[in-house]
Each structure stands twice: as C-alpha cells, then as structure tokens.
Amino acid sequence: MRPPLFRRLLVWSFLVAVGGVWSEDSWAQPAQVLSEIQRQDFERTANQLHVLVDEQSARDAREGVDAAIFAKGLTWALRYDREFSPADVDLLDQAIRRCRERLAALADSKRPWTARTGKIALGYVSDVDGSVQPYGVILPKGYDGKTPLRLDVVLHGSTRPVGISELRFIARFDEGDHENPLPPDQPFIELHPLGRVENCYRWSGETDVFEAIEDVCRRYNIDRDRIVLRGMSMGASGTWHLGLKHPDRFVALGPYCGYVDTHRFSETPLPNFVRVGPLPEIQELGLHMLDSVDYAANAGVVPVIACMGEKDIFFPAHVLMDEAMQREGLSLTNLISPGTGHVIDPVTHAEQLRRIAEYVSAGRRHPRDLRFVTWTLKYNRCHWLEVLGLERHYARAELSARIRDDLLIFEEPRNVTRFAVIESQLPTRPTTLRIGTSEMSWPQTSNGTNGRIIVVREDGRWKIEQGITPAFRTGKRPGLQGPIDDALTSPFLCVNGTGQPWNAAAQTYAQASLRRFAEEWRHYFRGELPIKDDVDVTEADLRTRNLILFGDPGSNLWIAKVLPQLPLTWSRESLQLGGERLSSADHIPALIAPNPLPGAGDHYVVLNSGHTFRESELAKLNYLLFPRWGDWAVLKLNLARPDAEPLEDNVLHAGYFDEQWQFSNSARAE
User: Considering the entire predicted model, what is its pTM?
Assistant: First the structure.
C-alpha cells in the first residue's frame, strides 16, 4: 500500500495539473470542525460586520465595498464549509480584523489602501445581481496617477469552489493598508479578477472580468489602448475565450497552457475528467458560442503570444488552436517550455512578457484591414465593425473589409444580414462603399446611433438602410439573442408567482426550480439571487432588468402580461410551443425572448429557468458549463413528486427560436 505522503503528493500534482489552487499550506494542513461556540461566535461577528458595512454603504456605496469583501467572504465560508484547517481559521480571524480596520478608516474619512502601491484587495458591487465581488490589483513602484499605465488583466487557474474561496483569493492580495516599502518594479498595473471563482470566465464570470476592468479604470489612470489579457490554465482558457471574442478590447493576449474546445479537452486522460461525447444537436450548436477554437480567425486582429510546457498533458489544446489558425491563414506563436509540465516556467514566461511588451509599445491598432468571425450576436463587435443580424445563429459568420484610398471594400459577407460601420472609429473616411458586387456612395450623415452607417441586405442586394427595419426591431439582435443562460450575464430579477396557479404541479415545480436556482447561484456564483414576489415588481425593475418569471399565467401576473406576445400558447388545459399541443397539468415551458412589455427596453424575459446546467456540472469541471436547452424547452412533470429532491428536469423537447424569435422545427432537438 502506498504511503500517505505519496498519495498527498499525487493529489497535489493533480491539482496543479488542472490549474492550481490558492493556498498550498491550507490544503496540506488537517481540517477540523469548528466547535458550536466557535461557529456561533464567528456567525455573530459576521452579522455585526454586515450591519456596519450596510451603514457605511448607505453613506457611500462605492467606498463601503472595500470593507464588504471581507464580511462577504467570511459569511460564505461559514455558510458552505464545515471543516477548517488552522490556516483557514486564521483567514476567518483575518477577515474580521481587516473588515474592522477598513470600516474604522472610512469612519475617520481615511482610505489608506487607495494610496498604497503593491498588492491590494479591492471590490465592487456587480450590476448583475448586486453582489459584492472581490478582485486584486498590483500597483507598481513609481505609480503617480498622472501618467496612464498599461493594464495586464491576469486570469487565475482552476480551483475547487468552496465556501472559503473568496477569503483564500483575497489573501493573495491583501498585504494590509500600510505603505509598501518594496512594490514591484514593472511598467504595468495588474488586475486579478475573481471571475465568480470557477466557471472558466463564462456567463457572469465573463461579466465579472469586464466589470472589474471598469472599476479599476475608475480608480486608476489606465491606458485603455494598452490592456493585455493573460492567464494560466483555466486563466489561459479564459484568455482564449474572452480575447478572441472581444478582439478589439485588448492589445495582446498571453494564454499559458489553456484549453480551447470542449470535446477534445474532455478526452484528456485524467481520472476525474468527464468525456463529452456526441451531444444532442441543440447542445452541439451551443458549443459554438463557447469553444474558442471556432474564433481562431480573430487572432488576426489581436496578437497572441501563447506558451505551453513540452510535457504538459494539455499540450494538444495548443496544437488544436495552431491547426485552426493555419486553416485561417495565420500562424500561432507558441513558446514551448522544454521539459516542463503544467506549470509556468519563469524563463518562458519572461520571454512571453517581452514579446507582449513589443505589441504594447505600439498600442492598440486601428486597422485599415479587418476580418472578424463570430457565431452569435453576443460577440458582435470588432473595432469599426458591428454585426447586427445573422441568417442563422451558431453558424459561422464573417465580415472581411479593407480600406484602399477612399474606398471601403467588403468581401461578400457570410451568414450576415445586417451590419454597421462605426464611422468615428475608421482610420480614414471613405467616399465609396463596395460590398461584394454592390457599390454605393458613402452617406453624408450616419443612419444609426453614435455615428454608425448601417447596411442591410434586401432582395439579394446590399444597401444603406433607410430607417430601422421592422425585422430588426423584433428579431434577434446584439444583447437579445439568447440562449436562456445569457439572461443571467446582465442585471436580472427573479419573480416568484404568488397568485392562484392554473395547475398545482406546475407551480410546485416552478417554486422548487426557483429554490434550486437560488442555492446554485449563491453557492457557485457567489451572490444572493435577486428575487421579488410578482406583486412587488416595479416599473424601474421592468426598465432595468431581465425578468426571470417562475410560475404559470395564473400564479404569476407578469407571465400573464407577456404571454400574448410570446411564441407560446398556454391555457389551463394545454400548452403549445411549436406544433405539438400538450396537457398543462403535467407539462411546463421554459424559454427566453425579448420582453415585449412597453418600457422594458432591450431586456429579456425568461420563463421557469435559471441556468440550464446544474450543480452536477458546477461541482465538477468548468468545461461542462455549456447551454443545455437553447432558447426553449418543454418539461414533463412528475405529477406524483413535482418537487422531488433532487429536482427532475425531464426535457421532452428543446430548441432554438429562429432569427425572428419564432418556433422553428429546424432548430429543435428531441
């Protein structure tokens, strides 16, 4: 039998292989359950801190959050963890002390952490759910706030999500608020987002990165033309994911050992990996929203300096991206670290940073030639181009353009029906626009908002749009393109039905689904789920948030309001989503659509669903967090136990709506 030390080293090497953990010392120490008195003392103190934080936030919401990160981390640790190592108990005590220190400073109108250099733990309040989210910054020696500095956004590796995750993360950056005598001597600021812990920077984890960037830009003098994105392992996968889909946001990308697809990565021969074999068509289509390899062409817009260990078990991921880039006529710069596995080699990393610096010195380009590929309107912008309409979602769409003298030339767009040229972002103003075989004079004034020239294809020909077409007002468009999971990446509100339900089983399932979603969100997305009863929803909620409605038209007054304008027929007796009529007694619909109510603006309405993946995926591996239902699903209820634990999701049908948000048999999966 192998000795315990060998087993510990084996487990530790595996944790490093899947992306690193935040506290080796904490992992190595034996954990024990807090005594009841200890737990009560910690919980009592946490409640007291939250009261003080709320009082400070009422006076100044932005300032209070830097103390709130400690109280929030303490609460989550106590809520979800039963055992704590001695190092973890120290983190609980430290969170109490640091929260009190910052609250005392704020009460005295002092903010010493805003003037220090080195490592600093900060936070912001997310617009998505109103939760407090921490991040770390590293301010270099000599930062004076006068000269705009380059910003390196550094994404962390994978770590098992536990209650104390925030406090372990914060501890990496919290050096106290005193003056730092030895800050790093580097020509850039580093931002380390939490990304909601463990989701490969997808969904609200993706939003977290960009919200953290905006908060840092508010606090410090950042050169927005010199923002670098880089990371290791899961952080590298996040770099591929965010960098290639938002290629105009960054001056360079630096992924170090990261996966780029779902199927091939899931075949990695590691003991806990779950192989993703052939999926239902609806889920295969959804992977085109996430798999970075499908966006390889956009490396022609933003330069990539990748790194990989020669003996890294995940080496095939960068081979796969290299092959994809070669098919696009590009070549991948991939620095190979001799003899190393899934670790950062200092020599290779230094060379990566040196090469990135060469691109940084020139700043973000304003290209005359531009080629942009996307598979969804969620990722629709690249410098001076915006894709506004697709023939079909989750199929490759491409715009390729070049400026020659006073002529702007587009190759025939692929899978695009409507797009915009942002005139103010062009390096020069053209006089003529040529798209495929269609040629037209450049308009004297823009026909869209914010200086956009909007072009649309009608009757097989391209022309400059004269007024916004009805199809664009009602169809899928950027920010309103689905799938269901997308509604949870921007401000949302869950609405609980309180009226008399049409069918008891549907209401029971809907309420159980809401409870499950609240727990999954709290545990894995690190915030309290925003919930109101239907009678308490305000006009301000309607204007500013996606409404996630639970119940049926009898129990939820907002479902009753939107139902007449949804692609769904639903009565007490039956429901019909597409061509099949089913009994309402033992079926319930889930779907996403633009909110049709006056004043709702560009927001979604969702019926009876949070994320379409579950705790069984959230607790395992981040590459499993892909959409399961598309835009809609019909669920068959277990009448005997509609709220059985664990809650059953017996999906009868699921699919995508077409580009006009209508049911289509071609986008349906059994």
Answer: 0.94
